[in-house]
Amino acid sequence: MTRRQGDKVTMSRYAAGRALIDQYAVVGTRPPRVDAVEKVTGRAVYGPDVSLPGLLYGKVLRSPHAHARIRSIDTSRAEAFSGVYAVVTARDLPGADGEGRMENGEWREAGAGDVQARTMRDYTLASDKVLYAGHPIAAVAASTPHVAEQALGLIDVDYEVLPAVTDVMEAMQGAAPLLHETMKTWSLVGESQAPSNVASSFQYVKGDPEQGLAEADVVVEHEFRTATVHQGYLEPHATTAFWGLDGRLTITTTTQGAFGVRDHLAKLLRLPLSSIRVVPTEVGGAFGGKNASRLDAVAALLSRKAGRPVKIVMTRAEVFLGTEPTGGTVIRVKVGATHAGRITVALAELYYEAGAYPGSFVDAAASAIFAGYDIPHGRVAGYDVVVNKPKTGPYRAPGVTPACFACEQVMDELAERLGLDPFEFRMLNCAREGTRQIGGAVHTSIGAYEVLKAAREHAHYCAPLDGAHQGRGVAFGYWGNWGAQSSSTISVNADGTVALVVGSVDITGTRTSLAMQAAEALGLAFEQVRPAMGDTDSVGYSETSAGSRTTVATGIAVVKAAHDVIAQMCARASLLWAVPVDTVAYQRGVFTTSQDAGKRLTFAELAAQLSHTGGAVTGVGNVDVQEWGVAFGAHIVDVEVDPETGLATILRYTVVQDVGRAIHPTQVEGQLQGGAVQGIGWALYEGYAYDEEGHMLNPTFLDYKLPTALDVPPIETVIVEVPYPGHPYGARGVGEMPIVPPPAAIANAIHRAIGARIRQLPMTPARVLESAAAL
Amino acid sequence: MTDKTRVCARINGELVEFLCEPYQSLLECLRDVLGLTGAKEGCNDGNCGACAVLLDGRLVNSCLVLGVEIEGCEVLTVEGLADWRGLHPLQQAFVEQDALQCGYCTPGFLIAAKALLEREPDPTEEHIRTWLAGNLCRCTGYDKIVRAVRAAAARLAQQAQEVQR
């Protein structure tokens, strides 16, 4: 058993008012992840690795235009091409004859499958209009990917090209081309009169913002812009479908949520849920980008027509053009404070690009932007705006990184103008348990202050900088996390080991962190629990692995299943011993009864007797988690700016985060490090570049640069533990929070290094030079 | 359709014959013709390193090599790193240091790191980061990968010393 080695790493730990005791046998240890050996030997099966007898290869024809009407589609030449087995278009989708179009103004529903049925069809395969360059129009299944590719060139599409709009502010103008001619702006006061590219708008108000402004001695106000960026997972989307003559559709695919894929396909293809089985593969990175599923339905239609299994694997360019990145934003922030350093008012306007269909995460951004602070008066307004770009989707703490970039630069400037240390200013104003947020929600147990305190006391923050053009920046961030439905079963083997099946797809190492929680709850060693991802036929409904929910919410399900196992095992012991069940207890791996001190069975000894005491024992844990702990993080970064080129180099980087309880501290460190480096990429390098007509100019890893090992230093981590009382071991969601502060922290560091403020992402050398020249 | 070419090569120590189209990349031949799916496609244009293999001991992106080019060559893929006795020290170090999350880039990193350690058995952190800059990882932030490569280098050096004794 690998024991906790917390003090060996840069880990300082805080508990709300009490010392933390290592009271767990498994939670907090660092066993190797259960999927590691398969992955280092090349045996793990990802989406593109799937193969079936008689497999055909699919390819998708995508619009070259950002906005166009489709006059006609002629597939006859492709159908006649040798090696082609099926060609599909929107006409092959159920309801293709005028049903299920855009109407009634309802565009979004809660949950991950957020595109309504009537837009689902056109989003899957466009019928009369394309809304972004990359919009799918038709697909081909052929004997090889090369034949399929050639056949795409034989599909004749007649387009009437329309003017495109790719900028969020331009899209809101009255003269802008309309993407959806009948869409009106939805808000709490009703629908707008005229059609608009603004899908929805909302506003939160707390207190009296005018009074807050009047009370402020110093007010800072700025506008910020961020570009469209991609999650950048290395594994392209891939799916394999077989739709048999028995009506059963099996989808084997790389996804964050098998049940979400099944829900979507059932609605779109009008099938009973029981006719669809979705089998999740290993997922080669997702970060929010593998929730939605467009490829699966196309592969299914091709398979039905061809009568054979069909696999579609996207190219990298298709991943950039045809999936769901996170959209560009324009954000205005205005914050006022007294000379004493108390914030009196905070105002924000958030304009978020939704892409071709409504559904940006502007609501999450609005909830998060000032969530770290105790602010008496505030107003936050949000706008969800469609533009001729790919529909946006979640990306790790969706919506919040641009909001933090804006908010935390304004906070930094305020602290500077007030002559306060940036952490001191934040600690003076930080949210605590009981703080009412501008959106109305009240914080429960949180670790905001503890995080700031740990960051301010960290050796990195106290170390001197040693060079010209160097600067240290900090930023503070929040992510709300998630709970929702999770299911699991635990079956006891005759040798006392157990099989754990969870409905949550493992995208970060959750098979390991969930097996640890099962072992802890069952009083077993980690190695005695064998975890597996279930498919949609083998376990109960589980929401997609998103919102940093899996270790927490599925963890609760697993602990519940473990308790069910223990209760059933106690009943078996009572049968064997002929004692009342309520006299049987289980502790530290041993069953005993208060009726007879001589009776004693270990878990394994009792497991061996299940076969003749009633058969197998399977514990079930199905939950719908409605409350969960939120996450706060503070980042410290040192940068050096080359005054000639404008290139900002990261010299040192430290992440401090409250994780509630680190179930697996090594994996927690990995999340903090990986999230920070994604945030560094967002800050300095990444962004979709568009031409006037709405074509993406850089859909390759050569031109859309991700950080490499050479671009980043070792990321230092500090795990703060303020246990969340609603989880059996105090865990909070971890994975998303660390991407939130980096762009803001780096912008603040660049300001300290060269005096200039960069208010646009990415902070490329050209922008840094431009801002420096404007000083 | 074109005429397929017969190619004979030694892959992971085993003599292999296969037929391929003249336009098929080595990556495609490994994955779709030979069933060796350990090498991954991340970009298909040489910018991510997920498809890295050793070709006659030289580190290449297999998406940029044609299948027909490996006639008479030796190829090492991630599947050839371990044998029945157990994991290669690099693989062992990646497991122990938790140098992977999703694991999709891992085969490429392992092969690239092997090429590095064959040239430079005791690389500095800077050297490791420079050498691995051709491999993208989106999950780990690279720190644990760099640590794993250093740990593997130490273990290989120790093994070499034991052999000498």
What would your notes on this structure say?
The complex is a heterodimer of chains A (775) and B (165). Helix content of chain A is 26%, strand content 25%. Chain A has a seven-stranded mixed sheet with strand order 3-5-1-14-11-12-13, sandwiched between helices. In chain A, strands 9-17-16-15-10 form a five-stranded mixed sheet, with helices on both faces. Chain A has 775 residues and is α+β, with helices and mostly antiparallel strands. In chain A, helix 12 runs antiparallel to helix 13, helix 15 (510-522) packs parallel to helix 16 (550-577) and helix 18 crosses helix 19 (742-754). In chain A, strand 15 (329-337) and strand 16 (343-355) form a beta hairpin. The longest helix of chain A has 28 residues, at 550-577. Chain A is globular and about 85 Å long. The model of chain A is unreliable at 1-21 and 97-115 (pLDDT under 50). Chain A folds into three domains: 49-162 and 237-313, Aldehyde Oxidoreductase, domain 3, CATH 3.90.1170.50; 329-481 and 629-773, Aldehyde Oxidoreductase, domain 4 (2-Layer Sandwich); 483-625, Aldehyde Oxidoreductase, domain 4 (2-Layer Sandwich), CATH 3.30.365. By secondary structure, chain B is α+β, with helices and mostly antiparallel strands. Chain B folds into two domains: 5-80, Ubiquitin-like (UB roll) (Roll); 89-164, DNA polymerase, domain 1 (Orthogonal Bundle). Chain B has five helices and five strands. Chain B has helices spanning 26-33, 89-96, 106-119, 125-131, 143-164, and strands at residues 5-11, 14-20, 52-55, 58-61, 74-76. In chain B, strands 2-1-5-3-4 form a five-stranded mixed sheet, with helices on both faces. In chain B, strand 1 (5-11) and strand 2 (14-20) form a beta hairpin. In chain B, helix 2 packs across helix 5 (143-164). The longest helix of chain B has 22 residues, at 143-164. The model of chain B has no long low-confidence stretch (mean pLDDT 97). Chains A and B meet through helix 1 and helix 18 of A and helix 2, helix 3, helix 4 and helix 5 of B.
